[in-house]
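Re: that chain you flagged

S.,

Sorry for the slow reply, it's been a week of failed gels. I finally had a moment to sit down with the sequence you sent. For the record, here it is as I used it:
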Amino acid sequence: MSKEKMEIGAISKPRFEFRSFGQCFCEAHKRMARLSVPVPEKVWERHSDEIYIVSRANDINNTKIRDGKMDIKTFVQTVDGLEQWNPLMKGEFPISAEVLRREVFPAFMVEMPELTKDTYTYDEFIAMVEQNPDLAAVRVHKQRFGYMVNDTICEVGNVLINGAKVVTINSESTEIEDIKKTIADVGLEGVENINYLQAIKRVIGMTNKPLANE
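Prediction finished late last night. Pasting the structure tokens below so you have them in one place:
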């Protein structure tokens, strides 16, 4: 069976991903840039502002809000140390109480707040999050530089997590062997694979673990 051709920004079957966070991946970044094939100009450099909702009780559902839209991905499996995630829910504000009751708060795995209205604005939803001691709404700014190495979609990003700067580097594809080759080629073998959810928890102190090269 022929493998799927990766295309930056295109929708594919669920991808596997290697990602890590730390203070500097300078040498790996240099190698990634040199090994990359040309990529579309629109992914040379991208900026975004997002809100991640993290829960002390949950590490398998990744929830973020960008441009008034909520996106929840759920963990599927780990194969050879690489994670696979699938879309769980997409919604936008104002959001219905029914969606909050059936999909959003169950994904956080925390006690359901009292929902007395039919719909909730973004500000009302964030207020509910902030009232729950097991949840946190975390501001994340991303400056991402896109590459493609060994037919895997790659990036290096400068990330501000509630204003704290960290660096992320990643490789993702539907093909596990292509990611593993990329990890070796750019010099990231042995570096911990962690996702945004885990990294944010470490930075804000919800989890007592360091990042990759601290």
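What I noticed first: Residues 95 and 172 are 31 Å apart (CA to CA).

Talk soon,
D.
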